[in-house]
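Data card: per-record layout.
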Amino acid sequence: MNTEHLISELNFKAVRSSGPGGQHVNKTASKVEVSFDLENSHSLSEIEKERLRNKIPTKISSEGIITLQCGETRSQHKNKAIVIERLIALLQQNLKVAKPRKKTKPSKGAIEKRLKSKKENALRKSSRKPPKIE
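The structure for this 134-residue chain is written out next.
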């Protein structure tokens, strides 16, 4: 994944933010929406695109666009930096290939230790019972 090329493919849109800020909120467009066209991207290979389609289908629209937004701060520039960071982190996290798990057997010592602790526990519990009178 080429991050510099990916950033050049992003589309930004500034909209009015909700939340605290008083009159400032009503006058300025500080909330930033970023959209990334996954289908027409040249910074990702076809294998990477397919991996993203499988891992995060809920974040991808029917047109193949990933949209994120940020209105945390009152600064448009800070919100833009935050949303770019989030998008790159989302893509990097979901492009990682998970290592296949190798099946292993417990060692003989581990098996013996487990059985020994089970026997001790059973003995401890049985000693708590009152004696049987016949």
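Known properties of this structure: The radius of gyration is 28 Å. The CA atoms of residues 34 and 68 lie 5 Å apart.

See the next section for split statistics.
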